[in-house]
Write a structure and sequence with these properties.
Strand content: 15-25%
Shape: globular
Number of helices: 13
Oligomer: single chain
Strand order of the largest sheet: 3-13-12-8-7-6-5-4
CATH superfamily of the largest domain: Aldolase class I
Distance between the termini: 7 Å
CATH topology of the largest domain: TIM Barrel
Number of domains: 2
Mean pLDDT: 91
Number of strands: 15
Order of helices and strands: EEEHEHEHEHEHEEEEHEHEHHEEHHHH
Helix content: 25-40%
Length: 367
């Protein structure tokens, strides 16, 4: 069957293709990657976590400078992305569990970002931080209908608004942290290794809830394990409006990570994917290397907390796991054996480094 991908509208912003490039930290998806994706007709995303680490604004001897550095580095990155793609759809991903989450949300909104995607928790207060910028679309990441219900009912009651779109996470395939949807005293179930789990069922449940109880139709974007046009078509056939892809964009010329990081992905196979603990208290999917071997063996990590960035951190508070910022940054700088390399289940789908334009042309070609 011949099919043409339809545009994706999120709030007031329209991307030519229903493809969002996932945000990847630390500085794996920065301005170069986001700008290139936006130019190619997708939604380009900047990962806000740790942007300030390698910036001129951060002094490693003074942790207190990190949050200022992160804010200023985010402004710089947004300006660079806009220079690359003045009219494209560009967003920022912010982790709810970071201490500067409210500041980064306000900063992104004030600097003409198209949309904000959140992860790592339920963004129950997000509309408060962007209230002065109504054109900024708000897109929470969720794993199940319970999370959608909590967000929608809270936002409707407090702010008389609903999300502009939702990222629906396939926890059995997605790279990085798996959503557990913990929200204070309300513990929502994790969807990892659940017999009979179906992302199609989650899409159906979420769409039914939105129509039946909220009276709306909100774009649903699936993320996790999507690697090619066949996968995209499959998700759209299940009722999704678009997809979010991360791992495929790592092996592009414009990806902001070190070339060794990209090459490591090129050499990886599905059997190299491991699940490791994280200091935020959630499991995460990554590529096997010396670092993950140490983590899985519960070897003590000697590196200190470098930025005090998380609201709750097992490393800082209990001496468990590792410094997330340092681990991600080490890998992105090119130290692929002693850093953390997040990856989705589609790691073996690329054989060479190509441009974003080439990748997007392949993903969007009429099929």
């Amino acid at each position: 069957m011949t099919s043409i991908l339809q545009p994706l509208q999120i709030g007031k912003h329209i991307a030519r293709y229903p493809i969002i490039q996932a945000a990847m930290a630390v500085r794996v998806s920065g301005a170069k990657l986001a700008g290139a994706v936006a130019n190619a007709g997708g939604v380009g995303m900047i990962a806000s976590l740790g942007l300030g680490l390698d910036s001129p604004y951060f002094n490693y001897r003074k942790k207190s400078t990190f949050f200022t550095a992160n804010r200023l580095a985010l402004i710089d990155e947004l300006n660079k992305a806009r220079m690359i793609s003045p009219h494209g759809v560009i967003g920022v991903n912010i982790i709810v569990g970071t201490k500067d989450y409210p500041v980064l949300a306000r900063t992104a909104a004030a600097h003409k970002v198209s949309l904000i995607i959140t992860g790592g928790g339920l963004p129950l207060n997000l509309p408060e931080y962007t209230s002065d910028f109504p054109d900024v679309a708000l897109v929470p990441t969720i794993a199940n209908v319970q999370g959608v219900r909590l967000i929608c009912e809270t936002w409707k009651g407090r702010y008389n608004r609903l999300p502009d779109a939702l990222i629906v996470e396939n926890c059995q395939q997605v790279g990085g942290h798996f959503s557990q949807c913990d929200s204070g005293s309300v513990a929502l179930p994790i969807q990892v290794n659940v017999p009979g789990f179906s992302i199609g069922l989650v899409i159906s449940q979420v769409r039914d809830y939105l129509a039946r109880e909220m009276g709306v139709s909100i774009p649903l974007i699936v993320t996790g394990g999507i690697s090619d046009r066949t996968d995209i078509n499959q998700m759209l056939a299940m009722g999704a409006n678009g997809v979010q892809m991360g791992t495929r964009f790592v092996t592009t010329i414009e990806c902001d990570a070190h070339s060794c990081y990209k090459d490591f992905h090129l050499r990886a196979n599905p059997e190299d994917i491991v699940t490791v603990p994280s200091p935020i208290g959630k499991p995460s999917r990554a590529l096997r290397n010396s670092f993950t071997q140490e983590i899985m063996a519960d070897s003590p990590q000697q590196r200190r907390c470098i930025a005090n960035c998380l609201e709750t951190c097992l490393f800082r508070d209990q001496g468990k796991t590792y410094c997330l910022l340092n681990a991600l940054a080490q890998a992105a700088r090119g130290d692929v054996e002693h850093g953390l390399i997040f990856s989705g289940a589609n790691v073996s789908c690329t054989q060479k480094i190509i441009s974003v334009a080439e990748l997007m042309a392949d993903l969007t070609a009429q099929s």
